[in-house]
Design a protein that fits this description.
The structure is a single chain. By secondary structure, the protein is of the alpha/beta class. Helix 6 crosses helix 11. The chain has a domain of 188 residues: D-Maltodextrin-Binding Protein, domain 2, CATH 3.40.190. Helix content is 46%, strand content 19%. Strands 1, 2, 3, 4, 5, 6, 7, 8, 9 and 10 form a ten-stranded mixed sheet that branches. It has eleven helices and ten strands.
Length: 324
């Protein structure tokens, strides 16, 4: 009994020492610059989000946050840098649906595991895909589009900036959930795809909001629905696809991650600050104006969200024969 008592006492002392050390580490964090990796080129929406969060963290902690744009291999380059980084809280990542859901489902032998190699910190923003159609297409609602596609199976073309892109998968999800037949027309980029949508070479497309809205406002194409689960504050009169097809959701999303093994005390400190940043009225206003929906949450909630997204898109990717 005395032997067991001594073991328990030693374990309790060890736990106390670990907790004290973790508290000390969190209290002194950060005491040097933080590297914030963005797996995309500078200037895009991911860069905007990372720089806004990074600037606010730097102000709160009086410590530099360095944005490191590492585009390449469809986000794999930048994501893998953080997966292999030291788990000390000084290298973090702006991860997206491409790097954490689509690439792992489509490509074999990924150099990282999206769930095992990262410590989620918080969701950052949801970026809904908007469903736009050519002005000559005689539809104004998702219901109209489904009816037309069923009346003309295989005669409607939907564009995307490339196979496996969120835009492509939005069209494939629409097909799988409604039983309609449409032809995918991949382009080498979103600009060319939108140009042909306006010109009538293709009839519809899911796309991110910023490049679509100016064309819609100029009367060059028609927007009929948004891919988010709820209506967007920026476009309150635009219905969701889910209002016609329950359960439909086509969004891209950005979240903040650290390497797996990062001390929980540091994860919690980063989470608390990032969530506060995303609730800041100035930040909310700036993101909403870009068609982004800021959504800070707990690490466990982000993990569940990723699992749900993987389950959602796994079926779509398989039915479209996209997996390598």
């Amino acid at each position: 009994m005395e032997y067991l008592f001594r073991i328990n006492a030693a374990l309790a002392l060890l736990a106390a020492c670990i907790n004290t050390h973790a508290a000390d580490v969190a209290a002194s964090y950060p005491n040097r610059p933080i590297r914030f990796v963005v797996p995309y080129t500078a200037g895009g929406p991911t860069d905007l989000v990372a720089r806004e969060i990074g600037m606010r963290l730097a102000e709160a902690w009086n410590q530099q946050v360095i944005i490191d744009n590492r585009a390449g291999a469809g986000t794999v380059l930048g994501v893998n840098i953080v997966a292999k980084a030291s788990p000390d809280g000084y290298t973090i990542l702006l991860g997206t649906s491409a790097g954490f859901v689509l690439n792992p489902l489509i490509t074999r032998n990924m150099p990282y595991d999206a769930l095992k190699d990262f410590a989620p910190l918080s969701m950052a923003v949801i970026s809904p895909q908007i469903l736009a159609v050519n002005n000559q297409l005689p539809v104004t609602t998702v219901k109209d589009l489904i009816a037309l596609a069923k009346a003309k199976p295989g005669q409607l073309n939907f564009a995307s900036p490339g196979p496996g892109s969120p835009n492509h998968l939005g069209g494939e999800l629409l097909k799988s959930m409604t039983g309609i037949e449409m032809v995918h027309v991949p382009y080498k980029g979103g600009v060319q795809a939108l140009t042909d949508l306006v010109g009538g070479q293709v009839q519809l497309m899911f796309n991110s909001i910023p490049p679509v809205l100016p064309l819609a406002k100029a009367g060059k194409l028609r927007t009929i629905a948004i891919g988010s689960a709820k209506r967007l504050a920026l476009l309150p009169d635009l219905p969701t696809v889910a209002e016609t097809i329950p359960g439909f959701q086509c969004v891209t999303w950005y979240g903040v991650f650290a390497p797996a093994g990062t001390p929980r005390a540091i994860v919690d400190k980063l989470n608390t600050e990032i969530v506060q940043v995303l609730a800041n009225p100035d930040v909310v206003q700036r993101f909403v104006a870009q068609g982004l929906d800021p959504q800070g949450n707990k690490p466990e909630q982000l993990t569940r969200f990723i699992r749900d997204e993987q389950a959602r898109w796994k079926h779509v990717i398989a039915s479209a024969h996209l997996a390598e």
